[in-house]
């Protein structure tokens, strides 16, 4: 799929030693467990008293449950209980105590809270049985008497009633105030374009379905294995919802089979499993089916209106970007959709707007690069349209309006190597050979097109704690309640610790996925390396200083006259930088001090006063080649070159994998993914993997990833920024622009399916 140029040219740990430095290409430390089946996921724990819960979902979008007929279901052999709103354990009623750490403003959804049905697919009962098969069969026999009310799930019919969100979600930045006079500048400009862009609903569909196994001990303590992006968020949620002491709840998520934002919030299988465990006083597991994975959250359906105006030389004179997205009736889910248009290019006249429409659907949730995946797509397609209106090369137009500072905030970037991204990706792709005219390249029956786009995502850092313990045998154990959703957290944290302490990678263990470990943020927003990684390095630095002080007391005092800056930790030793022969093995150092273990802890707090003086972001340049068969409307993405500026890369192999996977998803977003609703029923219809199309192996060809040199000490002490999100931003726009170059047809909706490509 890719030539792995960067990975193959990277330094590799010397064979047989295992010593690493940051940025090496290292295989995943958890890889063996995953491929051999030793890694246990949320639904793979089997206590002796385990019962199985199966969820019953509503078949209508709005109304009330009048009553239940449970006689047939309860008669199924092995059925223990059927839990509904009428007999569930007590739940707290206050919104504040019920909210999870990423909840948007409003009233969070409560499964089985009352008789009201707010969306199609809402859980209305939980059947618990001795076997999964019995629970599943009995769930099909549950009958509910319903009072159905009129519903409305159609965004396109309700664009006129969009409203500005009045309350904010954590991490959300509303569009800034207008800069200049955008509408007047638009009207006065000699060259302008205006267009509407549509993005369909998408669902996450990670490989591992959502599951919670609640193991109840004899003393009532709950150990919960949950599919989540934060064990501590799930613990906080459970303890507050059910009024339990946090000492009575431990949540673990050592392995997570993908999430991409769907695990930022606890999903409804978690409270349902806890309800059953509390009510029955035994262990319970609830696993959602693939179809039930479509009954909570999604990337919101979004409509965007964009107007761009420029002088004939390409100088931007006006940007107007307005978006309308859906939310639920109970919460205002918000994303940063339009703000990117005020950041990416220099322009004196910018007006941005963002509105919501509440519908009878579940609240949308974050999906990889939330807001940017749609907002930057629209902007970058509009920039391509403007380039053609100007008869100007699309890359030249972007360089003409390159922003050295953030135009809206008038702040410098902490680092910005976007220009280098353009240069390196264009050279690798061969952009200079691109003819300007559409329909000018063809191979056999296929038209060939080349397109490009820019990407941007925030570079974030939160707070975290980490501990580092050096044992007498030279083993280092580093811990934080972080999460690895397949991104490589185990590996990169182990590498950071091993490099800091000068140890073999095999001697370092990184512990994560347990709510009792030192506090860590939710794994999201591409912030885990900058946050947890910095905490890990901080803990190791404190450990180094502790060992240095111990070394000053060694017999003969060989280090007594030297300062900490004079020593280094290399190949299992502490030694003098200027005299490497003066060294001591770390186990010998502990033995001399009479210690069996040495531990240090570190609290990472972002330097907010310093960071707020800069705009912190990652950047990318994406170039794509497509081949289009107009007869069938089929599009093949045959080449993608993605150049990423994301600070220092801590683990090249996992970072490369992250960006490659993001490009695959970008192709899927561009050509395949959409969840379609029947608004008469108010429900999603293609709620399965046979009808919800995703990219498969045959859809993926050459993907070339470049990491541009960058070192950002404003974002993190490591110089890193994070790569999880930036890899997807701009991919769908580059493909859209390539389709236009191939066919001369502009497709302004995603996914760009064959019918849309063939349309006149």
User: What structural category characterises the helix and strand content?
Assistant: alpha+beta
How big is the Rg? 27 Å
* Unreliable stretches: 1-17
Shape: globular
What is the CATH T-level topology of the domain at 396-461 and 607-760? Aldehyde Oxidoreductase, domain 4
- Order of strands in the sheet with the most strands? 3-6-1-12-9-10-11
Spatial gap, N to C terminus: 34 Å
CATH superfamily of the domain at 396-461 and 607-760, by name, is Aldehyde oxidase/xanthine dehydrogenase, molybdopterin binding domain
CATH architecture call of the domain at 396-461 and 607-760: 2-Layer Sandwich
In helices, the fraction of residues equals: 10-25%
Q: How can the largest sheet be summarized? A: 7 strands, mixed
Helix count, DSSP H or I runs of 4 or more residues: 19
Question: What is the CATH class designation of the domain at 396-461 and 607-760?
Answer: Alpha Beta
In oligomeric terms, what are we looking at? Answer: single chain
Please, what is the average pLDDT? Answer: 95
Compute the number of strand runs.
33
Tell me the fraction of residues in β-strands, as a range: 15-25%
Task: Summarize this structure briefly.
This protein has 760 residues and is of the alpha+beta class. Helices cover 24% and strands 25% of the residues. The strands form 9 sheets. It has a 7-stranded mixed β-sheet with strand order 3-6-1-12-9-10-11, sandwiched between helices. A 5-stranded mixed β-sheet has the order 16-14-13-8-33, sandwiched between helices.
């Amino acid at each position: 799929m890719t030539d792995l140029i960067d990975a193959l040219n990277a330094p590799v740990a010397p064979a047989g030693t295992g010593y690493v430095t940051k940025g090496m290409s290292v295989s995943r430390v958890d890889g063996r467990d995953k491929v051999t089946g030793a890694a246990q996921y949320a639904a793979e724990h089997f206590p002796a008293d385990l019962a199985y819960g199966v969820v019953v979902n509503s078949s209508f979008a709005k109304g009330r449950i009048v009553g239940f007929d449970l006689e047939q279901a309860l008669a199924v052999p092995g059925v223990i209980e059927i839990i509904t709103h009428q007999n569930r354990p007590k739940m707290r009623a206050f919104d504040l105590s019920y909210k999870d750490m990423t909840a948007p403003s409003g009233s969070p959804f409560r499964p089985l809270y009352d008789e009201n049905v707010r969306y199609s697919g809402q859980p209305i009962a939980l059947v618990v049985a001795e076997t999964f098969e019995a629970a599943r069969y009995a769930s099909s026999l549950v009958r509910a008497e319903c009072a159905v009310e009129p519903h409305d799930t159609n965004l396109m019919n309700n664009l006129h009633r969009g409203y500005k969100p009045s309350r904010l979600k954590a991490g959300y930045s509303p569009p800034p105030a207008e800069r200049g006079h955008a509408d007047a500048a638009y009207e006065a400009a000699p060259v302008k374009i205006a267009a509407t862009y549509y993005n369909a609903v998408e669902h996450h569909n990670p490989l591992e379905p959502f599951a919670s196994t609640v193991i109840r001990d004899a003393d009532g303590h709950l150990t919960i294995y949950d599919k989540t992006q934060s064990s501590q968020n799930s613990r906080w949620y459970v303890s507050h919802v059910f009024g339990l002491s946090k000492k009575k709840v431990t949540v673990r998520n050592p392995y997570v089979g993908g999430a991409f934002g769907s695990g930022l919030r606890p999903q409804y299988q978690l409270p349902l499993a806890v309800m059953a465990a509390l009510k029955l006083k035994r262990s319970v597991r609830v696993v959602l089916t693939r179809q039930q994975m479509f009954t909570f959250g999604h990337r919101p359906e979004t409509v965007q209106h964009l107007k761009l105006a420029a002088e004939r030389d390409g100088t931007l004179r006006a940007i107007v970007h307005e978006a309308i997205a859906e939310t639920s009736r109970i919460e205002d889910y918000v994303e940063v959709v339009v703000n990117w248009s005020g950041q990416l290019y220099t322009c004196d006249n910018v007006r941005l707007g963002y509105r919501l429409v509440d519908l009878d659907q579940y609240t949308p949730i974050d999906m990889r690069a939330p807001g940017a995946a749609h907002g930057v797509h629209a902007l970058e397609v509009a920039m391509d349209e403007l380039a053609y209106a100007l008869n100007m090369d699309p890359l030249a137009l972007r360089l003409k309006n390159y922003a050295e500072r953030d135009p809206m905030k008038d702040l410098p970037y902490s680092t910005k190597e976007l220009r280098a991204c353009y240069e390196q990706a264009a050279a690798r792709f061969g952009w200079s050979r691109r003819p300007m005219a559409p329909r000018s390249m063809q191979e056999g029956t296929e038209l060939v097109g080349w397109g490009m786009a820019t990407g941007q995502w925030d570079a974030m850092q939160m707070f975290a704690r980490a501990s580092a313990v050096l044992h007498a045998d030279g083993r280092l154990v580093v811990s934080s309640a972080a999460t690895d959703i397949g991104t490589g957290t185990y590996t990169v944290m182990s590498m950071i610790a091993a490099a800091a302490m000068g140890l073999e990678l095999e001697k370092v263990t990184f512990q994560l996925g347990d709510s009792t470990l030192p506090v860590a943020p939710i794994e999201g927003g591409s912030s885990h390396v900058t946050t947890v990684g910095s905490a890990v390095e901080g803990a190791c630095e404190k450990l180094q200083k502790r060992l240095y002080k111990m070394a000053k007391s060694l017999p003969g005092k060989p280090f007594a006259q030297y300062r900490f800056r004079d020593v280094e930790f290399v190949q299992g030793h502490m030694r003098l930088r200027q005299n490497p022969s003066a060294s001591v093995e770390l186990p010998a150092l502990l033995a001399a001090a009479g210690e069996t273990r040495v531990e240090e802890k570190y609290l990472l707090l972002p330097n907010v006063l310093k960071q707020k003086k800069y705009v912190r972001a990652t950047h990318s340049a994406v170039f794509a080649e497509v081949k289009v068969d107009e007869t069938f409307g089929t599009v093949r993405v045959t080449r993608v070159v993605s150049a990423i500026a994301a600070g220092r890369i801590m683990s090249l192999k996992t970072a490369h994998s992250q960006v490659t996977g993001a490009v695959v998803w970008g192709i899927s977003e561009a050509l395949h993914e959409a969840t379609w609703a029947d608004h008469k029923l108010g429900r999603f219809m293609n709620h399965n993997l046979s009808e919800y199309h995703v990219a498969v192996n045959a859809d993926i060809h050459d993907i070339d990833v470049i990491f541009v040199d960058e070192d950002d000490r404003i974002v993190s002490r490591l110089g890193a920024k994070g790569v999880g999100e930036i890899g997807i931003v701009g991919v769908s726009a580059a493909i859209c622009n390539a389709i236009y170059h191939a066919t001369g047809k502009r497709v302004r909706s995603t996914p760009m399916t064959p019918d849309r490509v063939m349309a006149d």
